[in-house]
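Researcher: Structure for this, please.
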Amino acid sequence: MVKTRGIVLVTGAAEGIGKQIAIDFAKAGWKVSLIDYNKNELETTFSEVRQIQADSIFITCDVKNPEEIIKAVSETHDRLGGLNCVINNAGISKWKSPYELTIDEWDDILNTNLRSVFLFSREAAKYMSQSGGGSIINMASTRAVMSEPHSEAYAATKGGIVALTHALAASFSEDFITVNSISPGWIHTGDYKELREVDHDQHLSKRVGMPADISRACLFLAQSDNNFITGENITIDGGMTRKMIYEH
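Model: Predicted structure, token format:
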């Protein structure tokens, strides 16, 4: 039997990177609270996690709704008996010209991607501060520092997450809570075999990223022994943001 390592809350846990994080934390002995808006996908993922870690739970939550966030954090703490780590992974995107992006669409993306990070972090920290500390891990993106056209709202949220991360690290330091962010590059969440050779070769790592590349970093940051790392943003992108793009 795997020894219980702690209790982790993962947002956006129904699929993609969040699903991999939930599964890998369960395998590592963590009790997992899976949070997502998509109930059908969430229940499917939860059934996989529960086979690994029976004490895990799932909570359907709209991360744009502050009241639902407060309830999800409280329920996680009460049902699982504590809260040691939060991974703010939920996010949406919309590629649309800034000339056409509506205020409602802008607000929807910011409230989902950025405001939820602040609210989940604040609510979780209230419990962590009473139990000796914990770890908060926020999912940013390489798009915080580089862009394609028509990605303004998404880029703004990811840049905001990086800044929010070091601000929260400073504010929560007295309560022994570390706060870090991860900036994934191209992480392929579909069939890895569908990728082309050119997709892999353009990376300095010579391969496209996988969700497990991100979950391993989350597991590292969640370990209490690594609490000398705080306020940091870790880029995991196969070297793409360090690569000269000029063709000779």
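Researcher: Any notable elements?
Model: The CA atoms of residues 7 and 82 lie 7 Å apart. Strands lie at 6-11, 30-36, 57-60, 85-88, 134-139, 177-184, 233-236.
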